[in-house]
Amino acid sequence: MSQLHRRGFLLGGAALGAGALVAGCTGNSSDKDTAPQVKAPPAASGSSEAPGKPVTIGFSAPAADHGWIGAISINATAQAKQFSDVTLKATEGTNDVNQQIQQVQTLIDAKVDALVILPYDGKALTAVARRAMEAGIPVVNLDRVFANALSYRTWIGGDNYGMGVNAGTYIAARMKQAGKANPVIVEVAGLDNLELTQQRSQGFREALEAAGMKVAARQAADFTAATGQRVAAQVLQANGKIDALWNHDDDQGIGVMAAIKQAGRDNEFLMVGGAGSKKAMDDIKADNTPLKATVLYPPSMASSGIILARMIAQAKSLGDLAELEVPASVTTYSAVVTKENVDRYLPTAFS
């Protein structure tokens, strides 16, 4: 459960502390006083990790044609194996929307106890996810959100806007540290027609603006190494001086780094990546390339999705929260990985 951000107070000591505080505040009150009484919620029904009733969880995701997507499926399978009471029925990854719909329908017909779905296209899979919910099968929606909340019980995914904010905040801090008043900051984005790309760019731009800086040049690629190299070469050619570069995606970043090396500009500026690949983290740790940080978009959300699906199917709750039910949404945090903390995050990296 380390990947879930547990907000709220711990039920044990914190609840006791609250009770003691109430007693202390009302100890000198007369019988006529009507001070509000604080009542702690009932404790959660046992550890969420303790074995429960056997459940079957269906899992569906796109084809593993990208390191991050591949890690999603690997993490989901590995997490399910950690539970003796979970049977995982995983479909073959596909980027064919109609095929994924059919696969999910097959899982519904098999009467699985819960579904974890990363849709290739959230809008297109909304109807079949809704059918699952109507059949009494709770759906955990991974990352690419369905068109309406009637199609899922819980959503867990990344924070694209926050990813941009944290990349911009880190770069701004490094620029101020270096004494650069008007730094030239460029951005190599992902697919521009995707909302997630737009959100990342918005967060990046607004974080820089808050620090009195701006994006000098921006160009979109399409999350592949080949386009990353081509686009980065164009950006480098158009900008004779660069102080910092943010690349949205670490797989795409392989091409960006190749373009930087080919241009002989390895030591000119710092680069920040995105998502959290093992190669990026290895480069950050070695500290011998322009890449000095990457902003996470953790595929460990798939592991957490399996954990949440199991808890929902077994009517369990998050033990460290006061809530009696699993939350309706969980947003992962886009931590900035640097040389100083890379060892902590390496176990979460994807190949």
Automatic annotation (TrEMBL):
Cite the entry's keywords alphabetically.
Answer: Signal
Q: For the Periplasmic binding protein domain, which residue ranges apply?
A: 57-315
Name the residue ranges with Low complexity bias. Answer: 40-54
Does the record's keyword annotation contain Signal? yes
Source species, domain of life: Bacteria
GO MF annotation list: carbohydrate binding
UniProt subcellular location: Cell envelope
Cite the Pfam families for this sequence.
Answer: Peripla_BP_4
- Where is the region Disordered? 28-56
Q: Which InterPro entries match?
A: Peripla_BP_I (IPR028082), SBP_2_dom (IPR025997), TAT_signal (IPR006311)
UniProt entry tagged with the keyword Signal: yes
SUPFAM superfamilies in alphabetical order: Periplasmic binding protein-like I
Extract the signal peptide range: 1-23
Q: What is this protein called?
A: Substrate-binding domain-containing protein
This chain's source organism reads Yinghuangia soli
